[in-house]
Write a structure and sequence with these properties.
It is built from 9 helices and 11 strands. With 281 residues, the protein is of the alpha/beta class. A 6-stranded parallel β-sheet has the order 1-11-8-7-5-6. The protein has a 3-stranded parallel β-sheet with strand order 3-2-4, sandwiched between helices. It has a two-stranded antiparallel ribbon with strand order 9-10. It has 2 domains: 30-113, 3-Layer(aba) Sandwich (Rossmann fold), CATH 3.40.50; 140-262, 3-Layer(aba) Sandwich (Rossmann fold), CATH 3.40.50. Helix 3 runs parallel beside helix 4. The chain is globular, with a radius of gyration of 19 Å. The longest helix is centred in the N-terminal third of the chain and has 21 residues, at 7-27. The chain starts with a strand and ends with a helix.
């Protein structure tokens, strides 16, 4: 019988320590504070914003929200980022991406002050992940995958890990983070030939391609651990992952969608903000 890797258990385990750290900083006159910047009103952004705000409230992290119109120019968003950079009372910034096509996303993400980049969006933070230097913060969702595996005692050292997805948000950084834990990592994507065959060789399979049902039963080997990071809408309007649910029957363990990695991501975000606030003292 498969073990379900619920994210709530991981978030609950992190909660007490984070709350204590935030309370200690607040007692010193420093309230850990996150700026959330959203462009437009995408439903997935709004849902994540609610989740992040709720988790931050639970552990004692304050939240300030900034909203920019969908059709705004890059200069307007850069002005918001500059305001956040200049405010010593803000310790971290969450910027929802992708940005609208008329905006220069590279310019915006790299305008953020490195010390406030708590979601690993700047080139400097990503360089820290790929070099293993420990500088900056890794993307929260990528770190959440690693935290979830560790919480459930799943040691990836010496294991064959397959990551399906190559974005800078999840795929590439999580591959590097698994490699740092001595996994042997293969990175695949939606255009990989014989994808199912490559997935079948995995001891640990992380699927983060953002494509509903990309991995089916043909790609799931008996006894594999599956971390499904995909968030998609199914035919009935519900939420589903990148792995077809019926394919998970033979897995040793898997994350549910929803209720898996997402619950951990917001806790990692809060942890990064608290750490950034501590470093500002």
């Amino acid at each position: 019988m498969s073990t379900i890797l619920y994210g709530k258990a991981v978030a609950d385990a992190m909660k007490e320590g984070l709350a204590a750290e935030a309370a200690a900083l607040t007692a010193q006159g420093v309230t850990p504070t996150l700026a959330i910047v959203r462009v437009g009103a995408r439903e997935d952004d709004i849902a994540y914003e609610r989740g992040a705000e709720k988790r931050c409230g639970i552990v004692g992290v304050a939240v300030r929200k900034y909203q920019v119109a969908e059709d705004a120019p890059t200069a307007e968003l850069l002005g918001v980022i500059e305001e956040i950079n200049a405010d010593p009372g803000i310790h971290g910034c969450l910027l929802f991406r992708p940005l609208p096509k008329q905006m220069d996303e590279e310019a915006v993400r790299n305008a953020l002050a490195p010390e406030k980049d708590v979601d690993g969006i700047t080139d400097g933070s990503l360089a820290g992940v790929f070099s293993g230097s420990g500088r900056g913060y890794p993307p929260c969702t990528a770190q959440a995958c690693v935290e979830l595996l560790a919480h459930y005692g799943i040691d990836v050292s010496g294991k064959d890990a397959v990551v399906v997805g190559r974005s800078l948000v999840i795929g590439k950084p999580v591959a590097q983070m698994l490699l740092a834990k001595n996994a042997t990592v293969t990175t695949c994507h939606s255009r990989t030939r014989n994808l199912a065959e490559k997935c079948r060789g995995a001891d640990v399979l992380v699927v983060a391609a953002g494509q509903r049902g990309l991995v089916d039963a043909e790609g799931i080997e008996q006894g594999v651990v599956v971390v499904d990071v995909g968030i998609n809408v199914d035919a009935s309007g519900g939420i589903c992952g990148d792995v077809r649910p019926e394919a998970l029957e033979g897995a040793a363990a898997y994350t549910p969608v929803p209720g898996g990695v997402g619950a951990v991501t917001t806790s990692v975000l809060a942890a990064h903000v608290i750490d950034a606030a501590r470093k500002s003292v």
